[in-house]
Amino acid sequence: MRRQAGSGEGPVDTVRAAFRDECAALGGALGDVTEADLDRPTGCPPWSVRELLAHVRTGVGRLADMLAAPAPATADVDAAGYFGAAKFAPDVDAARIDSGRREARELDGPALVADVGRAWRAADDAIAAAPPGRLVRTRHGDAMRLGEFLRTRVVEVGVHGLDLAAALDRRPWLTPTAAGVIADLLTGGRPVPAQLGWDPATLIAKTTGRAALTGSERAVVDAAGFRWLSFGG
Fold first, then answer.
1. Nearest to 7 by CA among 136, 149, 133, 122
2. Model-level pTM?
């Protein structure tokens, strides 16, 4: 059985460390962004940097409210199952996009960056106070173990951190702890063919469609029968 928050060292503690590391790295990287930087387009159209950052803030902040709500009796979805096709249906995508754009108008740049920090620290405090075995219910109605939902938050912060770094023409700040959690989820824990020679950031970019496979990479993937989690699939 997986150990849960508050139960000492274990998988949840590892994911929590990745969450904290990646959120802190995001805040550190964006501490000097300008209003002009925030208005840049991103590779997640139609969001600007400001709008994508607002989306990340909402995503990291969800856990505090979820942990304040009654726990479901049983878990029915894990982190991989959470990223199912229903999360990327046109109406859900439209609502997600509109929410990010609307929330981005609420704060100026420094206040928005600061609020990302407030949101993830509130979530981390709630995780620390959660009892062992805590289950949560997502806004989509999924019942999940706390650690499994937290894995999805590491994905949100880490993958969108790559998007933000690209939009700002900055070196990616992806942390080793977050990269490990994301790669493990994307690959289902299976080893990546050594011939690909991918570092964690490249693995994540290739498997999430943020970078195209070359012909030789596709040949290696096909020959090895290597498959990864497909968001929305």
1. 133
2. 0.87
